[in-house]
């Protein structure tokens, strides 16, 4: 009898492991298929980050879904709510509450196209999501900030620090939607500095997640646990495409933030932060990753296939850290009054909006010099055996690049100034660094 009981227990455990692995495999297959077919759903009208409210609205208005103007921004721009599905589980998703964080807004447009498609191999999946959930989308919650391509609202308030006072009409709308809809799950969709690394590594944290904490002790209740479990499924799906480039956002409690308060109000809050990926300046690849991650999360919620995940899987995601510069030049030789001094040079490239905030110029900044062996560069140069020399010493380069007097006036490299110099080996030019970029 004891032997029979042990065998029965083993069979039951094996069954549940099989179900969990089967669910994981199905999620992996689904995400890989989405990734492969993404171009079929991509909204081609938006191809860069600095699109405006006027570019977004025609795309929303033509959607064949239930939609309404849920509110207005401070400058009277319409804030749309789009509704899909008829299921019992309510999910609220909003993007771009910071005006210069547009990646997820682009991905939501792609998701809207996905839900309009048919006969593409995903009909059953769409039906599963839409019959088990009701989805509420609010794309571009901060259109006034998007107009200026800035983080803050038109009244210079960080909306994500307005969850106590509600001085922004956009933030007040988000609170109203939370109160009225009472979503079981909420997706808070952001961008972050592209120089965040995945832990202490040279890899950019391309996508980071967080199940936000609702108190200073960072306790876990059922709502936060469910958010963590859904995140585990999404992160495992993305691991196939960007191994080593996933991270976990700091869960230090911020009592003024919407994510933390929404978690306190009872919704399972899933934060997605889009960082950087090499040579993806306009974040079109990261847009694709958001598309896959969000739909994978919605699938997990609809099927309740997330419940087997444990906290250890979530905590295995590396923390966001700051170990990256845009360009790191290692072991460059400087001449100080005839004495050779070897230093590393860390350079960042800062975007400056043009007047209409539809484009940008780059301003380079020398962030640090010295021993930077514990840091990495998104791009790197091994300058061992190379000497740093001023551009002014090379009139042929000044002419070739039509350089101004300002660009060549500095004879020495200084912190917090532009990066314009030459790396040579003897008299041979090996690299020209012009405004922090390799020429």
Biggest sheet layout: 8 strands, mixed
By CATH, the superfamily of the largest domain comes out as: Zn peptidases
Q: What is the distance, rounded to the nearest whole angstrom, between the alpha carbons of the first and last residues?
A: 78 Å
* Count of domains: 2
Give the SSE order as H and E letters. Answer: HHEEEHHEHHEEEHEHEHHEEEEEEHHEEE
User: Count of helices?
Assistant: 12
Assembly type: single chain
Placed side by side, the strands forming the largest sheet appear as: 1-2-4-3-5-9-7-8
Gyration radius, rounded = 25 Å
Percent range for β-strand residues: 25-35%
Gross CATH architecture of the largest domain: 3-Layer(aba) Sandwich
Average pLDDT taken over every residue? 94
Spans where pLDDT lies below 50 across 5 or more residues: 1-24
From the spread of the alpha carbons, the general shape counts as elongated
What does this structure look like?
- The chain is an alpha/beta fold and 439 residues long.
- The chain folds into two domains: 10-321, Zn peptidases (Aminopeptidase); 324-438, Roll (Urease, subunit C, domain 1), CATH 2.30.40.10.
- Helix content is 34%, strand content 26%.
- The chain is built from twelve helices and 18 strands.
- The protein has helices at 2-37, 53-61, 103-116, 123-132, 143-148, 169-181, 222-239, 258-264, 284-303, 311-315, 395-400, 405-408, and strands at 66-72, 78-84, 89-95, 133-138, 185-191, 197-198, 207-211, 246-248, 268-274, 320-321, 324-336, 339-353, 360-370, 376-382, 387-389, 421-425, 428-434, 437-438.
- An eight-stranded mixed sheet has the order 1-2-4-3-5-9-7-8, sandwiched between helices. Strands 13-12-11-14 form a four-stranded mixed sheet, with no helix packed on it. Strands 15-16-17-18 form a four-stranded antiparallel sheet, with no helix packed on it.
- Helix 1 (2-37) packs across helix 7 (222-239).
- The longest helix is centred in the first third of the chain and has 36 residues, at 2-37.
- It is elongated.
- The N and C termini lie far apart (78 Å).
- The relative contact order is 0.12.
- Belongs to the peptidase M14 family.
- It holds the Pfam family Peptidase_M14.
- Residues 1-25 form the signal peptide.
């Amino acid at each position: 009898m004891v032997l029979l009981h042990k065998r029965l227990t083993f069979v039951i455990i094996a069954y549940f492991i099989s179900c969990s692995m089967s669910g994981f495999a199905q999620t992996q297959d689904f995400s890989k298929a989405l990734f492969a077919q993404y171009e079929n759903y991509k909204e081609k009208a938006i191809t860069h980050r600095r699109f405006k409210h006027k570019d977004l609205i025609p795309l929303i208005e033509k959607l064949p879904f239930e939609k309404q103007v849920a509110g207005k921004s401070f400058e009277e721009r319409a804030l749309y709510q789009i509704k899909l599905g008829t299921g019992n589980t309510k999910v609220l998703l909003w993007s771009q509450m910071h005006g210069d964080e547009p990646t997820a807004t682009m991905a939501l447009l792609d998701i809207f196209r996905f839900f309009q498609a048919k006969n593409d191999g995903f009909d059953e999946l769409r039906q599963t999501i839409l019959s088990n959930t009701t989805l509420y989308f609010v794309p571009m919650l901060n259109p006034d900030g998007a107009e200026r391509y800035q983080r803050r609202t038109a009244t210079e308030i960080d909306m994500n620090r307005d969850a106590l006072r509600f001085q922004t009409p956009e933030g007040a709308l988000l609170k109203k939607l939370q109160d009225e809809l009472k979503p079981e799950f909420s997706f808070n969709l952001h961008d972050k500095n592209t120089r965040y690394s995945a832990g202490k590594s040279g890899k950019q944290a391309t996508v980071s997640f967080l199940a936000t904490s609702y108190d200073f002790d960072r306790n876990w209740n059922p709502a936060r646990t469910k958010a963590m479990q859904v995140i585990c499924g999404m992160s495992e799906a993305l691991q196939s495409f960007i191994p080593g480039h996933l991270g976990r956002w700091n869960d230090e409690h911020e009592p003024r933030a919407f994510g933390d308060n929404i978690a306190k109000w009872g919704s399972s809050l899933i934060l997605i932060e889009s960082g950087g990926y090499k040579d993806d300046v306009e974040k079109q690849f990261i847009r694709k990753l958001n598309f896959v991650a969000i739909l994978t999360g919605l699938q997990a919620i609809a099927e309740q296939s997330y419940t087997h995940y444990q906290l250890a899987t979530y905590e295995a995601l590396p923390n966001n850290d700051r170990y990256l510069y845009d360009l790191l030049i290692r072991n460059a030789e400087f001449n100080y009054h005839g004495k050779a001094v070897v230093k590393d040079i860390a350079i960042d490239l800062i975007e400056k909006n043009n007047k209409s905030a539809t484009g940008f110029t780059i301003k380079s900044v020398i962030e640090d010099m010295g021993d930077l062996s514990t840091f990495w560069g998104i791009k790197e140069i091994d300058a061992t055996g190379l000497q740093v020399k001023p551009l002014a010493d090379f009139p042929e380069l000044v002419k070739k690049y039509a350089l101004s007097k300002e660009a060549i006036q500095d004879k020495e490299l200084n912190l917090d100034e532009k990066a314009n110099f030459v790396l040579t080996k003897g008299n041979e030019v090996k690299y020209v660094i012009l405004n922090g970029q390799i020429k």
